[in-house]
Write a structure and sequence with these properties.
Blueprint (H helix, E strand, L loop, with lengths): L9 H22 L16 H13 L8 H8 L16 H14 L5 H16 L4 H22 L1 H16 L2 H8 L13 H26 L5 H18 L4 H19 L6 H27 L3 H18 L23 E2 L5 E6 L7 H10 L3 E6 L1 H23 L5
Parallel strand pairs: 2-3
Antiparallel strand pairs: 1-2
Helix pairs in contact: 3-6, 4-7, 5-6, 6-7, 7-12, 8-12, 9-10, 9-15, 10-11, 10-15, 11-12, 11-15, 12-15
Amino acid sequence: MARYRPARSRASSFIEDVIRKSHQATRLLAATGYKPDAFVLPQRPLSANQMRTVLSQHFRNRTPPVRSASQADAVARLPPGKADPSLRHGPNIWESTKAGFRGIADSLPFEGGNVLPAAVWAAGAALSGSSPGQAFYRRLSAERGQDRYDEAMHPTARSVGKWTGTAAQMALLPAEGIFVKGGARLAEAAPMLAREWGVVGATGGGISAASRGMSDYLHGERSSAAEYAGDFVGGGADALLSRFGYGGAAGAAGGATASVATDVLDGRAPSIEHMRQAAVAGADSGILAGAAGRSWSNSLRPRQKGDLGERLSLARTLIGGDLPRFGPKRAVYPRGRKTIPDHATIRRMLVEAKFGPSAHLSRNQRVAYEFYGPGYRVDSFLPRDVGAIAAFPAAMIGAQIEQRHTKPLP
């Protein structure tokens, strides 16, 4: 005789189905690392669609994966009120894209990508009656925390952004040549001698090392011997290349050379990131200072330009290891033609200085040039030389300041 089985109502079948699905959901959550007791079902029956909705909510709010120490520190340093975007479900392309754009901004030297938003924030606070100083430092701290987060969570996007911004800034270097040209030197101008090149390089290196010493004194720090030697090498390269008038290109080369030399002398592999930062800082500083120097010298009156050329000529005499004779200028009479050189040296060299692209030798000066030969030196200076003189220290100091910014932020 067959066993009697009471007919199950539709309601009891629905309840059993809900219980079975809840057990399946609990096992599924336990397999993914959740505690089963953390999954609490509502006290009412759930349909299959409602069950899927509950499960999807749990999966979207799941605990983030295990992170490295740097990543955990980056999340901990997020600005106040900033949620961790990695908690969202699936790959977050939008967050990586924003990290890339922030990387472009952070390619600017001297923390430009952080300082500029902080300055705008401070201006807004001042207009609203709040303290601009406190607003500036709060925003700067928030921007630095965002940088740490991007470096840990979106390193590739941030690197791509930085190098994109760097390439855009370096693309401006060829445009510097449009403003640097500004005429040619006199055909009679004396070329620089090997001794003069050597003195320029050594002087540039010494000034660069001295600048680091002064910076250490002002900041109460002490740089290593490798850093001083690296600055000497980079400063020498910057000074030598500045002779061609391209302050931006010379600054970029000098900053990168100093960074690489410092790393090598310290016994570590050269840092591409530090080299990029030093090159950008040197290039931007050199371009701005070089443009200011050229503009200033071009704005001088003719007599002032003549005085400037004479001073530059005296400096060249000293660089060449000679000394000018002091006293009033004396006229000379080559072939009966009178001319008054700008100065004479102890080694009996007569020197005539010219400044500007329109400067030229007079008829008597040309006779003296032909009559005395190597004993009559013609110095021809252009506005781009003044730009190079201004660009060299600016690029050198800019690269050194950027090197201090690359140290771990407080």
